[in-house]
Structures are given as C-alpha cells and as structure tokens.
Amino acid sequence: MNVRTRGARLAVAALATGAAVAVAAAPATASAPRFLKPAELPPHPSSPWYAGPVTAGQPDPLPMCVGQSLPSIASHRAYWTEMDTNALQVTVVERDARRAKTFAAQLRKDLATCAQKLEKEYPDITASQKYYGRLKVEEGAHVYGVHTEASWGASDIALFSVGRDGRTVTVVRWAQLGDFRHAQVADFKATTVTAVNKLY
User: Fold this and answer.
1) Which of 150, 153, 163, 146 is CA-nearest to residue 63?
2) Of 191, 149, 148, 146, the residue nearest 170 (C-alpha)
3) Tens-place pLDDT, residues 174-195
4) Alpha-carbon distance 78 to 113, whole Å?
5) I need a labelling partner for 41 at 20 to 30 A (CA). Which of 51, 76, 83, 129 fits?
6) Domain boundaries along the sequence of the chain
C-alpha cells in the first residue's frame, strides 16, 4: 500500500516501505514471543510475502488506531508484498495476565472508535469500520476492519486483530488498496489464530 501525504498521512499505508525501517532497527531479544512467518499471512494472488526481523520497541511509524497505546516494551515485525499490500505484528509481554487483559481491552477500545477518531483528526478522510467478531483461541482474539477514503480518491482497507495468551498480547494488521469487498477476512482470521497460538 503506497504511502500517501496530502494533509493526512495514514499509518494504514505507511509500512509499504517498512522493509528498510525494519532492517535498520535493532533486533529484539531472544526471549521475544514467536512471530508470524510470511507464509502464514493471508495469501496474495500475485506476490509472495516478505518480512523484516523481529525488532524491539514500537514500530515507526506507529500504526493507525492502536499506535498511541503501544508501550516501549513492544516488539514488532513488518511484512510486505511486491504489490500494494503490507502487514504488521506487534507483541507486548506484560508483567502478569491481569495487566495483559487490561491492555488488550484498551486496544479493543481503540479499534472500536477508530473510524470516528480518524475523521476527527483528518477532515479530508471518510472512515468506516466493521467488527468481525471474537475468535476462540487461547484467551480470545477480536477482529476489526477499517476502510478509509480520502477526498482526492485514495481508498484503503485494513484488518486488525487483538489477541491474548496469558500475559502476552499481540496485534496483527493487514492492509491494502481497496474497500471492504477486498478484505480477506476469512484468511485474516486464520492468520490471527496462528499468531495467538504462537504466543507464550
């Protein structure tokens, strides 16, 4: 997904060039949870997926909707294809399950109000969203979709999920050009289940 700037720079598009950022960043510690492999992402019809290293700290730029809630103890991995599709996984290991539960609830709150906040922050953006339900994996995962359309014609679709296993929380984001018709919801749900199952 191409980075766009024209009064608004949406993080749903910002990781299309995330490969260079991810490679330059410091690698995460060996104790970090396991992350998705490129082949575990929703299949792209004309390109393989590629991935940067697992990297300590917050992603840069921060992803829309959930970025402001991500702590410095996060670790992340960026993914991309040869086309206008990219993905991101961010994982946070909290001190205990109670704190992880609270953090996951905050991320879900962020996603539940994402479209409204985007329209308020970026007047030239129209946003809408859908909730795709809860997945039965470990302590549960929730899936959301957010569509943004800019006044100059850009249209982007992103899928997000928040899942938890014990004291570990993960956020997965998939994004590409298009709208809700182009969202690979079933494939993304399968990716989310895989991601949560790979946590501690």
Assistant:
1) 146
2) 191
3) 999 999 999 999 999 999 999 9
4) 24
5) 129
6) 11-197
